[in-house]
Amino acid sequence: MDIVLLLLGISLLVGGGHWLVKGASELARALGVSPLVIGLTVVAFGTSAPELAVNVSAALQGRGEISFGNVIGSNLANIGLILGVTALFKPLPVQGCLIRRELPLMLLATAAVVSLALDPWLRGESAYFDRGDGVVLLLFFAVFIYATASEVLRGRSTDPMLAQSLDEAGDAPEPTPDGASLWGAAGAGLAGLLALLAGGRVTVDAASEIARAAGVSEAVIGLTVVAVGTSLPELVASVVATAKGAPDIAIGNVVGSNLFNLLFVLGITASVRPVEVPADGLPDLMALAVLSALMLPLALTYQRRVVRREGALLLALWAGYTLWRCTAGAGAAVVGA
User: Fold this and answer.
1) Are 163 and 36 in contact (CB under 8 A)?
2) Which of 55, 110, 175, 312 is 20 to 30 A (C-alpha) from 263?
3) Could you report how far apart the first and last alpha carbons of the chain are, in Å?
């Protein structure tokens, strides 16, 4: 029954994120908001809406392990699962602006999160992201959004991270909105928001029960099942973009999503309630640091393309670590019992 509830919760998260983006984008377009602004805000935020809904719900319920596992696990899945599968489907070209800006920013954000988590450990204290850390991450996020918007508005480059968002937002002129269209867009957005709230609560409750029944920590469930489930929108967006002949959007989507998760989702969550790093969370942070760092040499080789053999490597590393994490977590629970 808990597995059914978990699947229901993840379905609500994915569907809610879609309807929130659709309704808010149509409403903003009808009110004359530019596609760039919609892409930077509504659509880009929407891809991280499932992670945010789960994390805020878990924080409010005092289940910080799920919050931690979901953010770190989603980023691991973005690199290993999504980028790996997409590269197996078709080699992914890496645009220059990603190497100059988004990829270094993602590595910097990853290093910042790891440093914030390790600092208390170095002093012999419990490791956690407190509200001050959350504010710092949100300030970094504001700088990232400002830098991205400024670069695009100056017209110096085409930003692959925004390409998918702008494509979804659309750039065709809209007819004068009538009351029915405005109310319809607002209703779709509200329905999506309610689905996200309900999905977050159901997912967190079901994940906790599954962790208890399986004898593993909530962090492991958050790192694996919940993280993969909330990463489905990014997986679909990357595969569809590659199938449509825009593989550069796929890698931009992964890098952008990781930045949103680390800076915005974790920042909001820690601001709501401090997020404790689980006792077994250090390997997760190290795995994320290694996979993130690996993206830079992979992006620079083979004429700046992530080719199939590199995709297979990323997928194998992610699958191997996830399998080890699950078996190690179950083994530790048995020993503890």
Assistant:
1) no
2) 312
3) 25
Domains of the chain by range and CATH?
A: 2-332 (1.20.1420.30)
Is the model more confident about 125 or about 298? 298
Distances (CA, A) of 75 to 93, 120, 124, 158: 20, 23, 27, 24
Tell me the DSSP string of 231-276: THHHHHHHHHHHHTT-HHHHHHHHHHHHHIIIIIIHHHHHHHS-EE
Predicted TM-score of the model (pTM): 0.81
**Long-range pairs for 298-305 at CB < 8 Å and ≥24 separation?**
299/94, 299/98, 299/99, 299/103, 299/251, 300/94, 300/99, 302/91, 304/93, 304/94, 304/96, 304/99, 305/91, 305/92, 305/93, 305/94
Residue 129 contacts by C-beta under 8 Å, 6 or more apart in sequence? Answer: 113, 116, 117, 137, 266, 269, 270, 274, 275, 277
State the pairing for strand pair 128-129/305-306.
unpaired
CA-CA distance, 135 to 131, in Å (whole number)? 6
pLDDT of 55-102, one tens digit each? 888 888 888 888 899 899 999 999 999 899 989 888 888 877 777 778
Q: 92: part of which helix (H) or strand (E)? A: strand 92-93
User: How many contiguous H segments (helices) and E segments (strands) does the chain have?
Assistant: 18, 4
Judged by DSSP in three states, 281 sits in coil
Partners of 276 in the β-ladder: 128
Question: Which residue is associated with the tokens 């503890």?
Answer: 336
Q: Name the band, by pLDDT with cuts 50, 70 and 90, for residue 137.
A: very high
Contact in structure between 6 and 175 (CB atoms under 8 Å): no
